[in-house]
Design goal:
Blueprint (H helix, E strand, L loop, with lengths): L1 H28 L2 H27 L14 H27 L8 H23 L6 H30 L4 H28 L9 H9 L4 E13 L2 E10 L5 H16 L3 E8 H5 L9
Length: about 290
Amino acid sequence: MPGHGRAFGIGILLNVGFVIIEAWYGWVTGSLALLADAAHNLSDVGGLLLAWAAFAAARLKPDERHTYGWRRGSILASFANAIILLVAMGSLGWEAIHRFSEPHPIAAGTVIAVAAIGVFINAVTAWLFMAGGKSDLNIRGAFLHMAADALVSVGVVIAGLLYLWQGWTWIDPAASLLIAAVVVIGTWSLFRQSLHLLFDGVPDHIDLAAVMATLQQIPGVASVHDLHVWAMSTAEPALTAHLVSNGERGNNDILQSAQQLLRGRFGIEHVTLQIEIEACAASCAPHFTGH
């Protein structure tokens, strides 16, 4: 995880420099695709800064006022990154539609050269986040931002080549519109998952029914109720549950078995379990029993 802090710093510096270059040449050449890509890259710099801040906040220790620390900031950053991407692509699509009615020539050679640099920079930045994106939704959001930028730049290169080949003035906005649609489709899962976690939803990689079955199969456990699984951050699930003992095993043995199974099978480290006798459990009003 510490390496991700360095990845954020490198990615932000590379993209800030490229935004300046791309915006300048987009204005000089009159290319909507370059200007749109520069605006998208600028939004991604903001997204990277947000994800970096959330990454740093998640590492802060809990205190008396924030007993869970600031881990949820990574979920908020993932949601904000998804919103930024969707808004940026919506703006790009809107401008592309308007450009169809007012097409004009572009300096295709310059457009291709600048966009090719963008492909390299964004691909390198996306690669920095690739491994972490498999286990952390916040890092995945950063990866998607950079991968989307690389895709947009590839589209700009293709549009420039087609313009040189056929002289189609409509290819620039058409490529922008197609790219926007592809990025929106790719971003939707990030939006859905981050919104789900914001409302304390069960993380997608955890099967709640399997968790319930695992706990119920522990020797000495008669039943399970008030089972809750949620995400403290984009990479840290948490669980609370009431385990009803049948009296055949000691409470410590039951707790140790449960913690080992939850950690080994589901990767849940933060576990809070309450052991009850059956008489006490009968008086409780369960919120979720798994049935």
